[in-house]
């Protein structure tokens, strides 16, 4: 995209000294550059492309060869660096910002400044002086062992000048064991300041306010600043305002800024009541946030707190053409407000043309708590032409677009399958208009035609990218590498930050796959399967051994034979959508161990996954995932066998997930036999081996379950502690603690747990139950198990719920009694299908395969028939 400009006149300024005082007491100094009068207008080139004028087009070096109109006057000031184009010859006007199309004559002046090149010169920048202009000439990396003292900590002498980074980086940390600044950031206070073209890597904490650039600002402009890192504000007893760019702003503008990155997410958090946390700004009053975005985790805790992907609390302001991708959470209090773009908007504020691919979480049972895909709490304000594409929103008052809101919503859309308090919802009001997820993905026309977004100025849709991004990100996003051979797939390890897309099916027959990444070398890139299939992968591990922030979607992996998992062996912050695996794996069908806020949606595994006793240490094996920590799983299933066999440690095996902690799982099913044989703990469950601090809604498990403790002999050299020998087998969960399970059924026919009493400890007993074999502090709502299930154990006193005849359970049971959503999510199989239980509406029929479905049919037919 390109815009053209017409040069109408060019005149050099005389460098004669102007000593007169103009404009009150302001004493003007000698002009330091030249002026250029331009008429800028939007338009298109003959090839149909169009664009705006970028700031770089106006750099003085671009004018070097234009003849002098006034002989003898210099075009460049070589003794001082160029800082910016300004509408005032002395820098007191507005900087030219390329986010604006100028459609009239405008005279711009080149403003020059003073170099800042190291930590000492950075610390010596003046506070309280509106005349100073600084230009960064080097990257400045301040050692984390030398905590940064924020500049301009006196509110009476804030930073009032200009700082231009010239694309350089400042890295600093204010975390200290000795002192926490009240207001923390690169600057504590700024007023009338202009800060731009800068990269900041921040690790900053303030007891009152914190921002990557500035803690508190008024009447200031921050433009083209990219921030990564961690920002925290507040204390247990005092409120905080934290933003990736600024903590608190008044009468200010944030333009073309970002916090976090797609491969380095970043965190913003606050403590204390009445706190506000935002990906860009914590609290904004009478201010504008435009053309900015955040890929970060945002959280606020305690009473009356708000958290938003872009702004936590917006009062009398505007947010437009902004985005957030990540997580927003509020907890530990009442009147909590969370939103994908803004947590709370009031007093005539407006959110428009914004996009959120955000998981928004607030307590669903706490009074006056609101959560929305775009904004949580909306009062006397509006949201229009915005889109929420996240998988989940929870809160006492919640909706796909807004939480608490009675008016001011127009032309907003959300993906139809977004779960609001774990259920899909009807269109209208706070839920906006529902759209199929497929219609939102890779579809510029949806956003331009239905919402009127400007893809010539603010937005772009890079090739192969799932959702729209901001125009200034174009150079970072047009980097997909096409793969259509086995060698090119193997070469992904050459760029651990690369973005890759399959353009053809790949057969790995006859090759030995070596996993990408290692414990000290994570893969941080992206893999778009593009609906293609990788067949016959055989080797020592998954596609990725270690991965962080990685997204994999639209990929089929069939007939895998891996001494590892299918996609990831170990992952952090990973996202998996529309990924389907068949074959034989170790630890997990899709992934082994995932933690730190990953989510899995529309995924499946059909096959066997085992971990035998040759693997030393704790085992957690699941049909879909071995272990999941702090994650979300929706619309997924597994079929086959999952088994863990640890000779000297704990063994957890689940038909769906082996071990799950702090997990939310909604709309899932599994048809997987599970067994666990452990050294001192053995938990086996039809759905989960071990489940702690989690929420499970709308799920069922068909599968037989077995658990035991190894029968050790004196020759083994291993004598377990008799106080911890706890073999369990549960139709749904082997062991559950502090978890909430709703609308779930365990329909397996046999649960067996064995304890071999080699130490003559008669009071140790094996446990089996048709739903949960063992656990404590759990909540059960509307759960069922098969009343004909065979239970074999020393004790069968676990949780069973209501009974149902699983062999004869019809669609009416799943729809009316269990409460599965047959309108939007579930269906019964078609006639001739080898299954007789509910499947997802988008699942393929297991009848004679249609053309193009052979890979799927022959990959799983044997698994289903044997099951």
Give an account of the 3D structure.
- The protein is mostly beta strands and 867 residues long.
- It has seven helices and 79 strands.
- The chain has a 24-stranded parallel sheet that branches. An eight-stranded parallel sheet has the order 12-15-18-23-28-32-36-41, with no helix packed on it. An eight-stranded parallel sheet has the order 13-16-19-24-29-33-37-42, with no helix packed on it.
- Strand 47 and strand 48 form a beta hairpin.
- It is elongated and about 85 Å long.
- Residues 1-34, 39-59, 61-78 and 713-717 have low confidence and may be disordered.
List the helices and strands and how they pair.
Layout: E1 5-11, E2 35-40, E3 43-44, E4 50-51, E5 82-86, E6 105-112, E7 114-116, H1 119-123, E8 133-136, E9 140-141, E10 162-164, E11 169-173, E12 183-184, E13 187-191, E14 194-206, E15 209-211, E16 214-218, E17 221-233, E18 241-243, E19 246-250, E20 253-255, E21 258-260, E22 267-270, E23 276-278, E24 281-285, E25 288-290, E26 293-295, E27 297-301, E28 306-308, E29 311-315, E30 318-320, E31 323-331, E32 337-339, E33 342-346, E34 350-352, E35 355-361, E36 370-372, E37 375-378, E38 382-384, E39 387-388, E40 392-394, E41 397-399, E42 402-404, E43 409-410, E44 413-415, E45 419-420, E46 433-435, H2 437-440, H3 444-451, E47 459-460, E48 469-470, H4 474-477, E49 480-483, H5 486-490, E50 499-502, E51 506-507, E52 526-535, E53 538-539, E54 544-548, E55 551-562, E56 568-572, E57 575-585, E58 591-595, E59 598-601, E60 604-611, E61 619-622, E62 625-645, E63 651-654, E64 657-678, E65 681-685, E66 688-692, E67 695-701, E68 705-709, E69 726-730, E70 733-737, E71 740-746, E72 750-754, E73 767-769, E74 772-776, E75 779-786, ...
Parallel strand pairs: 7-8, 8-10, 9-11, 10-14, 11-14, 12-15, 13-16, 14-17, 15-18, 16-19, 17-20, 17-21, 17-22, 18-23, 19-24, 20-25, 21-26, 22-27, 23-28, 24-29, 25-30, 26-31, 27-31, 28-32, 29-33, 30-34, 31-35, 32-36, 33-37, 34-38, 35-39, 35-40, 36-41, 37-42, 38-43, 39-44, 40-45, 44-46, 49-50, 50-52, ...
Antiparallel strand pairs: 1-2, 2-6, 3-4, 5-6, 47-48, 78-79
């Amino acid at each position: 995209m390109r815009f053209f400009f017409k040069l109408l006149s060019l005149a050099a300024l005389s460098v004669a000294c102007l000593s007169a005082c103009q404009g009150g007491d302001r004493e003007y100094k000698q002009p330091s550059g030249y002026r250029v009068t331009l008429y800028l207008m939007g338009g298109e080139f003959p090839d149909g492309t169009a664009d705006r004028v970028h700031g770089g087009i106006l750099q003085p070096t671009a004018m070097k060869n234009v003849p002098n109109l006034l002989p003898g006057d210099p075009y460049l000031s070589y003794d001082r660096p160029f800082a910016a184009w300004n509408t005032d010859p002395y820098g007191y006007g507005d900087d030219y910002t390329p986010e604006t199309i100028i459609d009239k004559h405008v005279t711009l002046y080149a403003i020059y400044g003073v170099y800042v090149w190291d930590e000492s010169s950075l610390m010596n920048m003046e506070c309280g002086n509106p005349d100073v202009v600084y230009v960064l000439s080097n990257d400045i990396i301040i050692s984390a062992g030398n905590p940064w003292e924020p500049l301009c900590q006196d509110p009476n002498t804030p930073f009032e000048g200009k700082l231009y980074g010239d694309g350089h980086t400042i890295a600093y940390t204010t975390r200290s064991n000795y002192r926490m600044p009240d207001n923390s950031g690169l600057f504590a206070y700024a007023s009338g300041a202009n800060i731009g073209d800068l990269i900041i890597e921040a690790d900053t904490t303030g007891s009152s306010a914190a921002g990557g650039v500035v803690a508190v600002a008024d009447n200031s402009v921050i433009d083209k600043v990219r921030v990564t890192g961690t920002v925290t504000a507040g204390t247990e007893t005092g409120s905080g305002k934290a933003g990736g760019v600024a903590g608190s702003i008044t009468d200010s503008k944030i333009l073309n800024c970002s916090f976090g990155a797609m491969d380095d997410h970043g965190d913003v958090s606050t403590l204390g009541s009445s706190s506000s946390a935002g990906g860009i700004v914590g609290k904004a009053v009478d201010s504008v946030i435009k053309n900015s975005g955040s890929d970060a985790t945002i959280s606020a805790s305690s009473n009356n707190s708000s958290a938003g992907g872009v702004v936590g609390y917006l009062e009398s302001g505007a947010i437009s053409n902004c985005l957030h991708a990540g997580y927003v959470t509020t907890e530990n209090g009442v009147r909590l407000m969370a939103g994908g773009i803004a947590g709370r908007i009031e007093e005539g504020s407006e959110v428009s043309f914004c996009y959120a691919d955000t998981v928004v979480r607030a307590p669903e049972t706490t009074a006056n708590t609101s959560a929305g895909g775009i904004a949580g709490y909306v009062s006397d304000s509006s949201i229009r032409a915005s889109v929420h594409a996240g998988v989940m929103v929870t809160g006492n008052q919640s909706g796909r677009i807004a939480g608490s809101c009675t008016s001011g919503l127009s032309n907003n859309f959300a993906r139809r399958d977004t779960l609001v308090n774990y259920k899909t919802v009807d269109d209208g009001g706070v839920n906006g208009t529902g759209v199929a997820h497929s219609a939102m993905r890779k579809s510029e026309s949806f956003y331009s035609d239905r919402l009127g977004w400007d893809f010539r100025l603010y937005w772009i849709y890079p090739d192969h990218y799932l959702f729209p991004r901001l125009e200034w990100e174009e150079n970072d996003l047009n980097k997909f590498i096409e793969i259509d051979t086995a060698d090119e797939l193997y070469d992904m390890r050459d760029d651990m930050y690369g973005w890759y897309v399959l353009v053809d099916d790949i057969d790995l027959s006859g090759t030995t796959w070596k996993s990408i990444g290692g414990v000290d070398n994570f893969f941080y890139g992206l893999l778009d399967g593009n609906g293609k299939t990788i067949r016959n992968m055989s080797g020592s591990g998954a596609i990725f051994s270690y991965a962080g922030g990685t997204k994999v979607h639209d990929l089929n992996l069939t007939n895998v034979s891996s001494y590892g998992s299918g996609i990831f062996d170990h992952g952090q912050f990973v996202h998996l959508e529309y990924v389907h695996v068949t074959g034989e794996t170790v630890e997990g069908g899709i992934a082994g161990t995932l933690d730190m806020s990953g989510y899995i949606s529309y995924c499946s595994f059909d096959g066997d996954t085992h971990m035998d006793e040759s693997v030393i240490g704790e085992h957690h094996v699941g049909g879909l995932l071995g272990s999941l920590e702090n994650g979300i799983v929706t619309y997924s299933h597994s079929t086959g066998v999952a088994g863990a066999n640890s000779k000297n440690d704990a063994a957890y095996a689940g038909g769906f997930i082996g071990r799950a902690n702090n997990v939310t799982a909604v709309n899932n099913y599994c048809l997987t036999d599970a067994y666990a044989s452990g050294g001192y703990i053995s938990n086996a469950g039809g759905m989960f081996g071990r489940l702690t601090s989690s929420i499970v809604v709308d799920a069922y498990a068909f599968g037989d379950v077995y658990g035991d403790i190894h029968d050790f002999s004196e020759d083994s050299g291993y004598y377990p502690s008799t106080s911890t020998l706890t073999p369990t087998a549960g139709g749904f969960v082997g062991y559950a603690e502090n978890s909430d399970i709703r609308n779930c059924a365990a329909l397996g026919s046999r649960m067996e747990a064995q304890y071999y009493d080699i130490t003559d400890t008669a009071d140790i007993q094996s446990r089996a139950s048709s739903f949960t074999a063992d656990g404590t502090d759990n909540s059960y709502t509307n759960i069922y198990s098969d009343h004909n299930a065979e239970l074999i154990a020393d004790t069968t006193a676990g949780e069973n719920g209501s009974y149902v005849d699983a062999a004869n359970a019809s669609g009416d049971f799943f729809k009316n009694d269990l409460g599965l959503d047959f309108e939007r999510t579930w269906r019964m199989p078609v006639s001739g299908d080898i299954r007789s239980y509910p499947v997802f509406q988008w699942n393929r029929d297991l009848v004679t395969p249609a053309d193009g479905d052979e890979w799927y049919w022959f990959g799983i037919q044997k698994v289903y028939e044997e099951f």
